[in-house]
Every structure is written in structure tokens, then in C-alpha cells.
Amino acid sequence: MPVQPAHPNATPFLARLRQMQDQLSPTEKKLALLILDTPIHLGSYSASELAQITDVSNATITRFVRHLGYGTYEEARRQARLEADAAGTLPLPPAAQASANAPNSQALWQAQQDKLRATLAQIPASTMNTLAAALHRAPRVVAVGLGANHLLAQHLCQLLHTALDKPAQAQPAAGTTLEEALTPLARGDMLILCVLGRIPPAVQTLAQQAQQRGIALLCITDLTSPAPTSDWLLRCDTSAHAPMVGHLLDTSAAHTLVYGLVAHTVQWGATPFELE
């Protein structure tokens, strides 16, 4: 199949990488996972340097970028650098990096406020209203999350149970498997996927099974990761405020979002809003 060259309005590099990773060869997939899971910024390395630090061949680098839709490595590198410059994520010189990593509570709180604003600003009121109605009417809710996402799922279920006395379970629970998450659900119930970061294939499969069974599906993820087809999609800013904590998944905006969603649902139940 001919490869279409990227253009300035193309899908962002990391989003494209996540979308395409399952279509890559094993060696290319290894390279993709290294870029996604470690602080490797494509814009900072030549093709030969990237091949050396990731232990792949130059030919693999060439095939890799072409499979992502770029004509050359330099084209991919240029887009990655432009996006990193815009986001302020390119590696800094040692002195600047030390300054960026220095404890600064004022900068921390400002960054947290900015992330929350970025998360909430993109969610239309109509989406919040339809979600509130669906959550209120769903007989049962299951929220699925792995790792740090499981804490988000637990938080959401605890809020639903406390505020609405609604049967809500965070899965997978102790002694259960992910495959059992759909067991308590039937048509008309709701499944909520908490998938900030890369989405495991097993969760993708779960989403497909839920839709086949007529279960309403809400997906909560980060700003750039690919998401399964769902009835509702909420994206949260999870970016780190400093390079030193870049390996930590910031779920603070997501936790505020799920609180807001449940609070909105409580209000909707008391005085149903007119849905557009």
C-alpha cells in the first residue's frame, strides 16, 4: 500500500504512533513502545542516534517512520520537534533542566490549574447533560481500570454509591479477572473505561463486547491516546509539570472530572435538565 506523506495538519506524532503500533512489525513495535514508555524525544536524535540508543537498525528506523505515514525520518523528526517545542517537552540543557526540576509550589499549583482548565474546557455542556441522564438511569455501573486507573475507577464507583446509592463496581476486583467485568451487566447498564495512557488490548476487547451486548460505554482517557469506539469520550490532561516527574501519571484532573460528573448527575436527578 502506498504511504501517504504527513502534512502540517496531520495527526500528532505520538497519537499516530499509538494508533499504528498494533500494525507494526515486532521490531518496529519494540521501538514504538520504547518511545512511548521512556523519555525518548524523536526531535532530539538523528536516525543513526535513535537506532543506536534503541538497539535497532537504521533500516528499521526507515521502515518505522514510513509505516507511520512519513516520507522520511527527517519529516517525522521535524513534526515531533515542532510538537515538543509547542508543548515545552524537548529535553532542556542541564542548567535549564535543574531549574525546571527545582521545587516550586507556585509553578506546581499553576500547572495543576492549567491542566484542569484544559480538561474541562473541551467538554460541552450537552455532553455532561446526556452523561448525567445516562448515569442516573443506568440500573448498574461497572468501572474498569488497571494500575493507577483502578484508583480512578474506585473513586468513581464510591461517589456513585454514596451519592446515588447506585450498584457500582470497580473491576477487576480482588480475585477476579478483567474478562469477568461484564458479568453483572446487561443491556441498559453502563461500562466506564478508565484508561489514561496506553489502552491494553484486553480492554479494547472488553469495549467491543460491551457494545455488542447493548451496554452503554463511557471512555475516560488522556488527550492523545487512541480510544475504543464509545458512546461518550472524555479526555483529561495528564501531562507532568516538571521533567523529573515525567514518569508519573497525573490523574488529578481526571479525579476532579469524575467528581464533577457525579455531582452533575445528582443535580440532574433532582431537577432533570432539558436535553438537546
Descriptors for this entry?
276 residues, alpha/beta, Arc Repressor Mutant, subunit A, Rossmann fold, five-stranded parallel beta sheet
Largest sheet: 5 strands, parallel
- Tell me roughly what share of residues is in helical segments: 40-55%
The CATH class of the largest domain, by name, is Alpha Beta
The total beta strand count reads: 5
Series of secondary-structure elements, N-terminal to C-terminal:
HHHHHHHHEHEEHEEH
Distance between the termini: 43 Å
Q: What fraction strand?
A: 5-15%
Shape assignment: globular
Fourth-level CATH superfamily of the largest domain: Glucose-6-phosphate isomerase like protein, domain 1
**What's the number of domains?**
2
* Overall CATH architecture of the largest domain: 3-Layer(aba) Sandwich
> Please, how many helices?
11
Instruction: Enter the CATH topology name of the largest domain.
Output: Rossmann fold
Give the radius of gyration: 21 Å
Low-confidence stretches: 1-9, 87-93, 95-100
| Average pLDDT taken over every residue | 82
Major sheet: order of its strands? 2-1-3-4-5
Structural class based on helices, strands and sheet pairing? alpha/beta
Domain SIS: 131-275
Protein name: MurR/RpiR family transcriptional regulator
Pfam families: HTH_6, SIS
InterPro entries: Homeodomain-like_sf (IPR009057), HTH_RpiR (IPR000281), RpiR-like (IPR047640), SIS_dom (IPR001347), SIS_dom_sf (IPR046348), WH-like_DNA-bd_sf (IPR036388)
